[in-house]
């Protein structure tokens, strides 16, 4: 916006300063996502979400009221802390509340909400661009209003945490609050506590909690008393690297987010207006309008994705999206290389390049957008779930930070080479998904161990079987297989408590 350019000319006139202004939010996101893994365990998922909302509120008001670059940078960083925290805890929280047949849908719904927010922000920016007129007559409120509005959803979220959101049942079980966990499950599923399926789900959660607790006691006997809460949580990060299985899961989560970012998606999301201007849409208003279309496409295509992700699976969507994005980047690179020096006489070529960027966005919206967040929320065992999810989310933010920082000089320096650069990473990412990422659709979080070949050592297998017997899950399933009437949940729980 022209008024913002005038107020902060020292930032706008430098590609490195512009990169820092954009990317400092991602740096805050990295810190927030990484720390969320510990805070979500110590302070619960619910309260960690609340803290993330408060950071966003603070950041929004600092940037909206900024009169110099320092306030802008500080506000962006605090906003990043909040958004990074929410990006790590949100999918984890949703996955732990969701039934397995809807988990992909509900976690992907978060990605839909993200795309909806992006679209709304684009059009708010387009609308407020006219406050006080255009050009020299534009008001400061043209750019302050969107930054102020940014805090409103965070306020709604903070209030929702206080009055609506329940604690995660898996979190409650891990804290020994079995009765409260059962009440939450009953409320979420809409079944009475004595329902057979509800009993099975509860006992699956309880058996995994007990199994992971015993495995932790074996690996870290000096911390098994639970007195050193913070030391225990940091030890869980060590636990990630103690077993091949855990390391494999963390590596997949980190690399999935690495390839999501190096697909180049946020080079478009953050700098769409600047990119469209390099394609011949020299009017700031027209480039903002084309950017608004990016937001619409992102939302519209995400809707069918969240409806089919549990039916088709994660891998097919990722592979199909990679192919579509790769082709779009190659074609855009060819068009820009041929016509970048004379868009005035090749306006049709410019609009064709814009169209392929829109196609690129569409392919991301049904694939890497929702599927990557679903994957990192569901592949970890309870013992490292919060830590693993936070590492995956922090990988997203760290690579996001790098992309946001390097794109402005790439736009000015290598032109069409930028599109080719991201096409290469898309090709590598598709190869990684095809050969190294397992399919996880319709698996309970407790069945995910089987997907990754875990519990294969005889000692672990025997311990897991023992735990299932102790909590009554094996007896309950055997009774069901014989067609017997299941006992009341209260009677079943008497055996569990005795164990």
TrEMBL record:
Record keywords, A-Z: Membrane, Transmembrane, Transmembrane helix, Transport
Chief location of this protein within or outside the cell: membrane
All copies of domain Major facilitator superfamily (MFS) profile, residue ranges: 1-441
Keyword Hydrolase appears in the UniProt entry: no
Membrane-spanning segments: 20-40, 47-67, 73-93, 105-127, 147-167, 250-273, 285-309, 316-336, 348-369, 390-411, 417-437
Membrane topology of the entry: Multi-pass membrane protein
Alphabetized InterPro entries for the sequence: MFS_dom, MFS_sugar_transport-like, MFS_Sugar_Transporters, MFS_trans_sf, Sugar/inositol_transpt, Sugar_transporter_CS
Pfam families the record matches: Sugar_tr (PF00083)
Compartment(s): Membrane
Family classification: Belongs to the major facilitator superfamily. Sugar transporter (TC 2.A.1.1) family.
Official protein name in the record: Major facilitator superfamily (MFS) profile domain-containing protein
Native source species: Paecilomyces lecythidis
Source lineage: Eukaryota, Fungi, Dikarya, Ascomycota, Pezizomycotina
């Amino acid at each position: 916006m022209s008024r913002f350019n005038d107020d902060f000319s020292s930032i706008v006139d430098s590609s490195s300063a512009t990169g820092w202004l954009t990317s400092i939010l991602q740096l805050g996101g990295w810190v927030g996502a990484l720390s969320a893994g510990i805070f979500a365990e110590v302070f619960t998922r619910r309260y960690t979400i609340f803290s993330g909302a408060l950071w966003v509120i603070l950041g929004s008001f600092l940037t909206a009221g900024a009169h110099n670059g320092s306030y802008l940078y500080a506000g962006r960083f605090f906003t990043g802390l909040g958004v990074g925290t929410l990006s790590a805890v949100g999918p984890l929280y949703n996955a732990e509340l969701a039934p397995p047949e809807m988990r992909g849908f509900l976690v992907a719904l978060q990605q839909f909400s993200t795309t909806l927010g992006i679209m709304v922000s684009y059009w708010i920016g387009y609308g407020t661009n006219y406050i006080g007129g255009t050009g020299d007559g534009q008001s400061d409120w043209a750019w302050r209003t969107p930054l102020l509005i940014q805090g409103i959803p965070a306020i709604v979220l903070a209030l929702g945490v206080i009055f609506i959101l329940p604690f995660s049942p898996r979190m409650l079980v891990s804290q020994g609050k079995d009765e409260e966990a059962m009440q939450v499950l009953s409320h979420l599923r809409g079944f009475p506590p004595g329902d057979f399926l509800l009993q099975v789900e509860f006992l699956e959660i309880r058996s995994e909690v007990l199994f992971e607790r015993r495995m932790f006691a074996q690996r870290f006997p000096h911390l098994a008393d639970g007195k050193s809460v913070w030391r225990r949580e940091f030890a869980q990060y060590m636990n990630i690297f103690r077993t091949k299985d855990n390391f494999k899961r963390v590596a997949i989560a980190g690399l999935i987010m690495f390839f999501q970012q190096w697909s180049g998606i946020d080079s478009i999301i953050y700098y769409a207006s600047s990119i469209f201007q390099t394609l011949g849409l020299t009017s700031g208003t027209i480039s903002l309008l084309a950017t608004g279309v990016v937001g619409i496409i992102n939302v519209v295509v995400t809707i069918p994705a969240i409806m089919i992700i549990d039916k088709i699976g994660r891998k097919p969507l990722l592979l199909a999206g990679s192919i579509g994005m790769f082709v779009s980047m190659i074609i855009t690179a060819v068009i820009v290389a041929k016509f970048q020096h004379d868009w005035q006489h090749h306006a049709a070529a410019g609009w064709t390049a814009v169209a392929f960027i829109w196609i690129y966005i569409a392919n991301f919206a049904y694939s890497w957008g929702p599927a990557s967040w679903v994957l990192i929320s569901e592949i970890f065992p309870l013992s490292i779930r919060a830590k693993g999810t936070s590492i995956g989310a922090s990988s997203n933010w760290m690579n996001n930070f790098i992309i946001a920082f390097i794109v402005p000089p790439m736009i000015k320096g290598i032109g069409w080479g930028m599109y080719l650069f991201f096409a290469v990473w898309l090709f590598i990412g598709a190869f990684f998904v095809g050969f190294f990422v397992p399919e996880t659709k319709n698996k309970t979080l407790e069945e995910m161990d089987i997907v990754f070949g875990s519990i294969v050592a005889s000692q672990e297998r025997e311990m897991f079987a023992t735990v299932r017997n102790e909590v009554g899950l094996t007896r309950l399933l055997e009774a069901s297989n014989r067609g017997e009437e299941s006992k009341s949940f209260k009677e079943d729980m008497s055996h569990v408590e005795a164990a």
